[in-house]
Design a protein that fits this description.
With 131 residues, the protein is an all-alpha fold. The chain is built from 3 helices and no strands. Helix 1 runs antiparallel to helix 2 and helix 2 runs antiparallel to helix 3. The longest helix has 39 residues. The protein starts with a helix and ends in an 18-residue tail after the last helix.
């Protein structure tokens, strides 16, 4: 009985320590990859949001890995691996699509600012003129 309680206490300590590490890693922010006037504030905000989603997903994967490591048979690891990979790929596809759409909006704003048509050809309008 004492060994069981001690083992559960160790697992709880490991889980709590891991969650603290994941939380601290999510708090750190890096400089944006989208600096300069060619990119909008919305693009930088979307980048931060996507980074936060990726950090949360990584924390969830870490927590499930800890739970799977407690399984003495190892079967849960075989179940978790393909499901985790599919979820990661879905998150990556969604993030790519959202960022591509935002970058396309930034590109069109840049074209308008410099008096160009949406296809990038000159429109004959003066830069900065309203459409």
């Amino acid at each position: 009985m004492f060994v069981f309680m001690y083992c559960n206490g160790c697992i709880a300590c490991v889980v709590l320590a891991s969650l603290a590490v994941f939380q601290l890693s999510a708090c750190q922010s890096s400089q944006s990859s989208f600096q300069g006037s060619n990119f909008s504030d919305e693009t930088r905000a979307l980048e931060k949001q996507l980074n936060a989603e990726a950090a949360a997903f990584g924390a969830a994967q870490g927590a499930t890995s800890l739970a799977a490591s407690a399984d003495p048979t190892g079967i849960s690891s075989f179940i978790k691996a393909p499901a985790g990979l599919a979820a990661r790929n879905a998150l990556a596809r969604s993030a790519d699509a959202r960022m591509d759409a935002q970058l396309a909006r930034d590109e069109q704003a840049l074209y308008r600012r410099y008096g160009m048509n949406p296809d990038g050809t000159p429109s004959g309008k003066k830069p900065g003129a309203g459409n």
